[in-house]
Amino acid sequence: MLKKPDTFLPTDDGTGETAVLALDGITKRFPGVIALSGVSLRLIPGKVTALIGENGAGKSTVVKILTGIYQPDGGAMLVDELPTVFPAPQVAAEHGVTAIHQETVLFDELSVAENIFLGHAPRGRFGLIDLKAMIARSRDILESIGAGIDPEQKLKDLGIAKKHLVAIARALSIDARVVIMDEPTAALSHKEIEELYELVESLKSQGKAILFISHKFDEIFRIADNYTVFRDGQMIGKGAMADVSEVDLVTMMVGRDVSQIFPQRASNPGETVLKVEGYAHPTEFEDISFTLRKGQILGFYGLVGAGRSEFMQALFGITRPSRGRIEIDGITAQITSPADAIENGIVYVPEDRGQQGAILDLPIFQNVTLPSLGRISGNGFLKLAQEFALAREYTERLDLRAASLDTHVGTLSGGNQQKVVIAKWLATRPKVIILDEPTKGVDIGSKAAVHEFMAELAAQGLAVIMVSSEIPEILGMSDRVIVMREGRIVTELAQGDMRPETLVRHAAGI
Amino acid sequence: MNTSSRTIPDRLRSPLEQRLKSWETLLLLVAIGIFVANSLASPYFLNAWNLSDATFNFTEKAMIAFAMALLIISGEIDLSVASIIALASTAMGAAVQMGVGTPGLVLIGLGVGLLCGAFNGVLVTRFGLPSIVVTIGTMSLFRGISYIVLGDQAFRGYPASFSWFGQGYVWWVISFEFVLFAIIAVIYAVLLHKTNFGRAVYAIGNNATGAMFSGIRVQRVKFTLFLLTGLMSGIAAICLTARLGSTRPSIATGWELEIVTMVVLGGVSILGGSGTIVGVVIAAFVMGLVTFGLGLLNVPGIVMSIVIGALLIGVIALPRLWSMWRAR
């Protein structure tokens, strides 16, 4: 740790509280995108600070900087008000910063104690692991968080919630001063959430500073003392929870101004092309019904985990619905595989580009032609000239930037990869295109290009479904919006009724 | 939106340039090197009939290796191939005892191969079991059946017309097996490199999820590949049985590893996604030449297996050194 009193930076925000860990004017850039621009954050011992923001606001980047995974490009990090750097995750841990993630990697075949102390087990003589000390200390930690778990049990014998407690115990085993909780309740039941609240209270009373990241307002109002709101990589507001209302937070989160410029388009819907009736899945979604017309852009808004992507993947034939039917151009369609969906004119641009959307190690032209090979080949034999012609036609329509069509997709930027995926689907001449978070991880320039192209497609009569968690995108692009929460459609809004506050309220169930 | 229409070039490097800088070119140089070394080391090497004999060291294995190459490119593997040979050969031997003629024997050989391939394919694609586990299981299963049927006995008495598949010559020193090997090589090269099916194999091997999301019927393609591997094992069983003239349950023991070695030596990534048939063809020659050259020098069998082992390790190390060299 650096100890230079002369570099003391005044970060006191007038509350008179000393931050154990603070960020001051932190900036983080990635190629083509500024993830954080001059953000500040203060974590006070014995206080819970809620970090609030939409997806893409920069919350996870902050967590990665606080835990030493990312290095900031500008600004200062202060531990006990002294400038410090965390060049590696181990350094963050040495300073007592620990994070509990939504999904922590644990090891089923190891005991609870081994899981808690993996990598930093107490050592005895000859440098061997001191098993007794490890079990005793595990028992202490587990007791301190009120978890009735035997440290000698194997992890695989525990349920999901207990495993989560082990993950928390693991985070606390490094003698933490700062505990970061990244959507800790996402996978928990109601009762388990109550237990987590008690745990947070007990950590508070032990004087630990807690950073609590959550989408759920009821949680934040229940346990947080302070808040900090991020939007588009900037800090928008901060203060005490007691001085703020839900409406204030929502306003800060979504902002009044839709800063990006979206293409002007006149909505001119044609006849109904897709009709979905009562689509249901045993665990992911229930009773989804809607219709979609040619030339329309239908937005799907909701929180992460609302079941939007799961429904779209069922529509595309990846998973099978337990109930429900669909009609395309008035004819009932049976879709049990993506190949069926493509034949019926439904295509899907997935959120996970690297795994699902593109095949990164194959060249651009092979990616683009993959679903169209049946049409452009001769009796199953490849026709290279036709392949290049088709790939060129659609990639140039999307203004793809690439050295050649033989370049591997994996070497392209996120935006250009997305263009390849969209080109691939347009080349199949679909009737309905589903775009799942189409501009996630895409730089600003390509974002505008994708939006413009979406508008152009709709103008040409294609029916577009756009799943997005970005409110400006939903507002800027959709003709209608369906809001989903916990696997169900909560409401459908026409363009005139779409307001950021309304969307967030419906999505969060406030 | 496309006010400034630009043309993206098809390729930056010509296919010829890519080919010259490929693994296959390096392997071809190795093959030539071994050929030269062999001809210097033994006066008996450069003899048409000796060289013709040498091809029997790899023709049967290579037939299976082509199908195996596709399977490995797709991200799967079949370790039961040698046991399929044993089972197919046993079935043909049993049929001979019942007086079945040559056409019937061929059909039985092909049929048993296809059935075994289908069995592997169903277990992997229907039940989602890992192919390495499934085929280690069927490796014991198929050969086990041969041992139950034969014990320490052997089937003999194959008709003379059947022997031609393993001992016949089409023209001068060119054996039937060698011709069959060449035809199969061309068929597989076309299948892998010139058809939609081959493209699907590459797509699946690089990213099976992405391939599925692109509308490829992944399980169907994989099932077909297991079927093809079984079929090729059946063909190899016909050739080998015809060449040996007898069936013992230990027939073709250990071939599965030699075949996988051949495929990997040919530049097929054991992790799937890349490789060519040309590479496997050259690798087949390399392995055949090494075995034959060492045989001519009267190198004992144990030393030969050391050399093959070293070759296998070299195969794993060389691509790394090769890509490190290319990266510079």
Describe the structure.
- The complex is a heterodimer of chains A (510) and B (328).
- With 510 residues, chain A is α/β, with parallel strands linked by helices.
- Among the domains of chain A are: 105-174, no CATH class; 273-345 and 431-510, P-loop containing nucleotide triphosphate hydrolases (Rossmann fold), CATH 3.40.50; 359-429, no CATH class.
- Helix content of chain A is 33%, strand content 23%.
- Chain A contains 18 helices and 20 strands.
- Chain A has a six-stranded mixed sheet with strand order 6-7-8-3-9-10, sandwiched between helices.
- In chain A, α15 (414-426) packs parallel to α16.
- The radius of gyration of chain A is 25 Å and the shape is globular.
- The model of chain A is unreliable at 1-14 (pLDDT under 50).
- Chain B is 73% helix and 2% strand.
- Chain B has helices at residues 15-20, 23-41, 48-55, 59-73, 81-97, 102-125, 131-150, 160-167, 176-194, 196-206, 208-213, 218-244, 255-265, 277-296, 301-327, and strands at 169-171, 174-175.
- Chain B has a two-stranded antiparallel sheet.
- In chain B, β1 and β2 form a beta hairpin.
- In chain B, α2 runs parallel beside α14, α4 (59-73) runs antiparallel to α14 (277-296) and α5 (81-97) packs antiparallel against α6.
- The longest helix of chain B is centred in the C-terminal third of the chain and has 27 residues, at 218-244.
- Chain B starts with 14 loop residues before the first helix and ends with a helix.
- The chains are: A alpha/beta (510), B mainly alpha (328).
- Chain A binds chain B through residues 316, 318, 337-339, 341-342, 348, 350, 355-362, 365-366, 370-371, 373-374, 377, 380-382, 388, 392, 395-397, 399-400, 402-407, 424, 449, 452-453, 456, and chain B through 1-2, 5-13, 194-200, 202-203, 206-207, 209-217, 273-274.
